[in-house]
Structure formats: structure tokens, C-alpha cells
Amino acid sequence: MDNKQHKSGFVTLIGRPNVGKSTLMNHLVGQKIAITSDKPQTTRNRIQAIYSGDEGQIIFIDTPGIHKVKNKLGEYMVTAAERTLREVDLILWLVEPSTFIGAGERHIVEQLSRVKTPVFLVINKVDTVKKEKILTYIDAYKGLLDFAEIIPVSALKGANTDQLLSAIFKYLPVGPMYYDEDTITDQPEKQIAAELIREKALMLLEEEVPHGIAVVIESMKERQRRINNGGGSAHEQEAPDNTIIDIDAVIICDKDSHKGIIIGKNGSMLKQIGTLARKEIEDLLDCRINLKLWVKVKRDWRDSEFLLYNYGYNKNEL
Q: 225-237 pLDDT, tens per residue?
């Protein structure tokens, strides 16, 4: 393909918590990058995922959901989401199929009205409603902003996502490949491993626990598994199949009562979290993982700039 026709650019996904931003981004790039959960405010950092195709390259930025701020962590999340609006070539605003436009949606409209960046309205989860109702939802939203495109999709089922990709490329400028075509994220392996552990905790724990947890990877080291040669001695063999990554991770919670819930009776809950997380980390890194989990209490960590910085949330971006 002629280089002059190659398009590339940055696209952000915004929306209220739990509208399916991470699920859509994962589907579009064809691999799990961002964690997903049915609980709101799952995404805490801006996560970049890269789609490379014949038409060009799209760098997707999945942001935390825009919501009412309750602590410094919430302030960080909303600031991260709103700042991206001025830094990208295109904005995808995800909403659920509904005719009700609440205060949260109107706050987002207010933010979007201040930027010149083209905005797509993406009505997600259309697999959950009757097809004949979709036009009604489009009518409810179309007067709020001058949308560049309005596209109904199902991130979960993949419906209309090809149409969405094609539309995105129409609005991107001619540009270079920012990343190698095999690169699918800019996130360090440590960060992805920590997020996968947090995802499993979100999935398994009681409702009152998840927003009070963070996951910190304290150590992540690769080694070669020792192979017994049959003669009674063992040696290290340099082969991909023998690579093991040892990960020591800590789940941080802010209440003593939560620590007991996370650990579970005789360590059963912590073991479940570790088993599920280990499998996904192994799939991601394509090697064996030895995962060890601990739980620590750090009271009010979500209101401590020092602790937020230590747990991977850059206080300089607040």
C-alpha cells in the first residue's frame, strides 16, 4: 500500500462507568488488554491498545469512567479521562441503549462541547434490546451534540464493530506506524499482570470490597526450570518451554475486615483469585507462572497521593 494512504491516529473511548469501554477496546484489537467487570470504575489508568491493519494503525486509549469524585483516586481517574479529550484525533462516546439521559451523560456532553475533536456516538449493548428500538435511542441522543457518526454496536457479540473500524479510519489523518505491527499495548507486563489479578478479585469478592483494593507487583523475575537429566543431578536448560516467571504480588485493601474476606476461610478466596489470575497471565505471556499472593491493609490509601503514586497512579497527572 502507498505510504501516503496509510492512516494512523489516537482514539479515546469515554463514557460513564460500566458502559463497555474496555470490552469494546479488547474486541477491536483482538486481544484482552484492559480488564473488564460488571462493577463500575474498573479501569483506573489510561490504557493504550494498538490496532494494526492494512488501512493503518489506531491507538485506542481506554479511560476510566467519568463519574462523581469521592476521593483522590476518583479525582485522578476523572482527570485522566477528561484530559484525553484534547489529545486525540477522535472520541468514541459509549452509551447504553436508553432514552433516559441522566446527569452523568449531561456532564459528558458539557465536556465534549468544549472540544473541537470529532465525536462518534457509539450505542453499545444493542444485543440486549429489540432492533426496532435502536432508532428511538438514536433520536434521544442525536440532538445533544453534532456527532460525526452515530453507530450502534455490541462489544460483547462483535456486532457492527467492523463498520465502526471503517468509520474510524475515515476520520484519521494520513500518518506513520507509531508502533510495530505486532505490538498490541504500551502497558508494561507488570501492569497487565497486576490488573489481571485485580480483575479476578473484582469478579470473586463481595460488593463492598473491590473499590478499596489495589494490586502491586513486588517482584517479577524470569528463570529457567531445573531439569533432571535422569542421573540424579539437575541442570538448567535454556528453552522456551522451561521458562518460568515468578511473580510476588500484594493485594492492598483499606480495611481489616476486607483483608479477611479477600483471604477467605483457610486461604480459599486468595487461592481462587490466584488460580484464575495465573491462568490468564500464562496465556498472555505464553509461559509458566509461579504466582504468590499476599494481602496488606493500608488505610485510606485512595486519599493518599504518596500511596497512589506508589501503586502506579501518577500524582503529577492530577
A: 766 555 555 545 5
